[in-house]
Model the fold of this input.
Amino acid sequence: MKFKSLIALTAVLTLTACGGVDPNSPQGQRQAIFKEMLKVSENLGGMLRGRIAFDETRFAEGAVQLDKLSHEPWKHFPQVREEGGDTRAKDDVWQRQERFQELARNMEASTAELVAATQNKPLREQALVAPVKRVEDACKACHEEFRAY
Done:
């Protein structure tokens, strides 16, 4: 009886360990970048929507960080879809590369515009609403076409 219980426990633990995404894989790396982008973007939006106290320095730093991050995930989408893993990327990412890359460049352009908007000091929250909205719209456009929910 003890032996059967030990085998069952070992099997459960082995299967549990197999459930994660390798953080060093292309999928793991892009997921980490997207999570960081979401966190930064939520902080910026939170400052403009009153959920977080507006801090000019933190906002400008966040815009720069988001711009740097916006250039990173695309290089972790290999030319051919990798097998395995629990990805939310639709097959269209690999089948419609030209459109996917176009939306990636739109994202990069929108974050660059946001950084440019933070150069005019003192920052006026109202002047930042439109650039943040363009970043959010760029995210949404790509998600609608290329992310499986």
